[in-house]
Every structure is written in structure tokens, then in C-alpha cells.
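Question (not urgent): is this output format expected?
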Amino acid sequence: MDKTPNPSTEPRQGAQAIRRALAVLRILAAGREDGVPLTEVVRATGLTRPTVHRIVHVLIEEGIVERHGRSGRYAIGNQVPELALARPRPSPLLVAAGPSLRRASADIGDTLFLTVRTGNDTLCVDRRIGAYPIQVLSIEVGARRPLGVSSAGVAILAAMAAQDAREIIAANKTRFDAYRTDVATVLAQVTAARRRGYNLREIGLVQGTKSISTWIKTPDGRPAAAMTVSAVRTRLGPRREQEIVDILLREARAIEQNIRTGLG
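Got this back:
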């Protein structure tokens, strides 16, 4: 019997293995320094436990993943930031957003976040602390969340074609449990944000806070990022809410213009 490998299937299998490894890495990245237990990686990726175990241990051998001895959790390894040094320059989006983030932070006074889309996740890439004495530091730079969990994630989904947003929300279904939300809730939030033209979250990630997010699109019309203001609820009454929305919308359009013209 001829057991010669079929060349047409080998590339597909190789691509599948790479995609599975990247899916595992994205889940681990969301765990930051604390790491993620193997059971959570299995649940979030939908892969079998033996498959996840095999992927993780290959990545450990390569220095891409590490295992915390005391907790048994898995986290991104030291080689990842070392590899990132190969591209030390800030992304074009960060360069384009810089002037707007400075202006908006000065005008608003509360904490301002810039969050980008990466696959089915959001990643906080910048945070500006305002001058008001009470600041809401709900998310750190580098924090990763499934799209739909944070105010910024809902805003990015709202800027997409409805079918594309539904597909991402469905793909993230198993991950929502860890953030105490679900598909129906996220879909309702996206619909409301799409209707408003921005996202308003009456209850932020931190109790007693409120968030407003506007989306930022690339020249081809795809939502790439969102700007978010988070503040204590008493700071975001109806009049000030509209003032902040106007500032965020103004600066989102300015960032989009900078992206189109290649300006920073």
C-alpha cells in the first residue's frame, strides 16, 4: 500500500497547526503575567486537551511559552518580547493617533484609551491619564480581550458589517463566560452602538464607572481601533457625555485623516 504523503494535504495540515498554535498564544496573551490554566485554554480554543497540551509543550521548548511552577498556569515566554524588538518603531496607527490623543486627553481630563483590533481580540496600545484627581485605570497597555467584552470592542464591532460582527461574536462565544457576558448581550450592545454612532457603556469594567467609545476606520472602511474615555459616573452626566462624544468623534476623524495622508 502506497503511504507516500499527499502533497496537496500537507500544506493545509501545516497551516492548521500554525493557526492552532496562534489561537493558543492569543488566549495566553490575554492572561498577561498571571497566565492561564490549561483547562481555560482548552475551553476558549475549542481544541481537545491533548492537542492543546502538545502545542503548549512545543512552544515551551521553543521559549515562546512558559509554565509557572507554583500555579501551573501558562503564560507568554521571554522570547516573545525579544522577537518584538525586531520592530521597535511604533505602528502607523499609533503615530497617526498621537496628536489626537494629546488633544483629547487635555480637553477631557479623564483616562483615555486607544484600543486596536487584532484578529477576534482587542489590544490596548495606549493609555493617557488625565488631570482630574480621580482616574479610572481599568485596563493597562497590553491588555487583550475578546472583541465584544470591552466598550472599545463593542464599538469596533458596531463599525463592521453586521454579518462580520455576528461571525466574530459567535466565534468568541465560549470566551465570553470568563468575562460574565454572552452572545445576546453583546449583540444588543453592538446594535445600540451602531444606532447611536458611538458606544456608551453605563456600567464600566470597574464598578461605579462609565465608558464612551468611538471607532476609527482605515481608508478602506474597516474598523481598526477605538478611542475610549472611562470616568466615574458622576463625571459623565448627559451634558458632559455629549461634550465627550463630540471630542472623541472629532479626534477619531482627525486620526482617520492622518492615516490617509500618512501624517503623525
